[in-house]
């Protein structure tokens, strides 16, 4: 009849030593008696909480829609999605399996979370500090990557956000290169590389559409010629 949780809550209620009768009380007033005013405030509070939860949900749905519609390589979109879900192989995410020490292996200042690796670590900050003015002005504190990405969604326009996503992929690869003794790219290298990647992806996809349109027009004109030929020869 009752869930485990409710049974625990019920059995933990202390029983009066003086054997008093049970009585109903309203926990939102000092005297335990219900008042319309306290009921009204409680209802308003519940409505505000529900509204907050719903608007948060809608914000998140909008954020995913924007992510999947970005004109960047699918690998970049998946990378950002995994970072938002804390599914990147950072030490903090792998801690229970690999090592107890989850500190960032590069700066050794904080646990290596996605937010740390891509936003707060010195190996990320040096890139953001030379990136667009909007990211330069943002605060760099350890936060869930989901919150960082949500803030970027609010501040950056479509093109800036696309560049930013590719730069994050570049920052991650640069960390990997450093860990494997493959040198350390200059921040400008990451920034210019991201700009070039975004442009070349758009060019490739734009020209693909142009090609398709071009091919379609060729077929139409060929069909037209064939129809005219058929009419003129009476075939
Ligand atoms: Zn670090």
Write structural notes for this entry:
This protein is mostly helical and 235 residues long. It has one domain. Helix content is 66%, strand content 0%. The chain is built from ten helices and no strands. It has helices at residues 4-11, 36-68, 74-84, 91-94, 114-120, 122-128, 133-136, 145-155, 158-179, 187-233. Helix 3 (74-84) crosses helix 9 (158-179), helix 5 (114-120) packs across helix 6 and helix 9 packs across helix 10 (187-233). The longest helix has 47 residues, at 187-233. It is extended and about 100 Å long. It starts with a helix and ends with a helix. 19% of the residues are buried. The mean pLDDT is 81. Zinc ion (ZN) binds next to loops.
Q: What fraction of residues sit in β-strands? A: under 5%
The biggest sheet amounts to: none
Rounded to the nearest angstrom, the distance between the terminal CA atoms is 84 Å
Mean pLDDT: 81
List segments where confidence is low: pLDDT < 50 over at least 5 consecutive residues. none
Small ligands present: zinc ion
**Element string (H = helix, E = strand):** HHHHHHHHHH
Category from helices, strands and their pairing: mainly alpha
Principal-axis shape equals extended
Number of helices: 10
Q: Please give the domain count.
A: 1
The rounded Rg comes to 29 Å
Summarize the amount of helix as a percent range: 55-70%
Count of DSSP E strands?
A: 0
Name its key features:
single chain, 235 residues, mainly alpha, 10 helices, 66% helix, extended, binds zinc ion
Task: Characterize this entry briefly.
The chain has 235 residues and is mostly helical.
């Amino acid at each position: 009849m009752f869930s485990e949780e409710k049974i625990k809550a019920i059995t933990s209620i202390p029983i009066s030593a003086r054997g008093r009768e049970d009585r109903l009380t309203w926990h939102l007033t000092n005297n335990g008696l219900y008042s319309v005013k306290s009921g009204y405030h409680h209802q308003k509070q519940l409505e505000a909480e529900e509204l907050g939860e719903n608007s948060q949900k809608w914000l998140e749905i909008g954020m995913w829609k924007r992510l999947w519609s970005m004109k960047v390589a699918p690998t970049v979109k998946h990378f950002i999605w995994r970072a938002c879900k804390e599914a990147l192989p950072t030490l903090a995410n792998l801690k229970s399996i690999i090592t107890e020490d989850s500190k960032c292996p590069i700066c050794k200042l904080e646990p290596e979370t996605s937010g740390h690796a891509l936003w707060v670590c010195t190996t990320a900050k040096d890139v953001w500090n030379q990136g667009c003015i909007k990211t330069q002005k943002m605060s760099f504190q350890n936060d869930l990557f989901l919150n960082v990405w949500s803030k970027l969604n609010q501040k950056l326009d479509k093109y800036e956000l696309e560049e930013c996503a590719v730069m994050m992929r570049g920052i991650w690869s640069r960390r990997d290169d450093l860990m494997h003794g493959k040198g350390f790219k200059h921040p400008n290298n990451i920034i210019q590389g991201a700009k070039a990647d975004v442009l070349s992806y758009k060019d490739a996809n734009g020209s693909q559409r142009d090609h398709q349109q071009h091919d379609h027009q060729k077929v139409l004109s060929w069909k037209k010629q064939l129809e005219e030929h058929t009419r003129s020869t009476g075939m």
